[in-house]
Amino acid sequence: MSLEADAQISAKTCSSGFMYRSHRSSGENVYYNSSTTIPYLQIASEGMEYWRGEVDTNGMNYRMQFIKNLETKPNSPLDYIQMVWASSYKVGCGVARCPFGTVFVCRYYPR
């Protein structure tokens, strides 16, 4: 199954939690918006901006070098960093409407 199909299935579960990393081979980022009418392209853009913003808020040093303590920081940007890292070569995303809003999920290799 493709990463996109996996991400779509994950989004359609409308889960408010993350699947434990040890149970899947790909990394996963999840973004929620409380609107049930937001256009899919807009939530995708918001999700990417949100994840990118974690780097600005909590993130990397000016040299863009990984520092071990990033893993333990609250709101760690680690998931976004892994998704856009040079060694991540596949990304697939999905969107779903849920009772509580809209969910945007991206999966990527390697995690």
TrEMBL record:
It comes from the Eukaryota. InterPro entries: CAP_dom, CAP_sf, CRISP-related. CDD domains: CAP_euk (cd05380). SMART domains: SCP. It holds the Pfam family CAP. Residues 1-111 form the SCP domain. This is SCP-like protein.
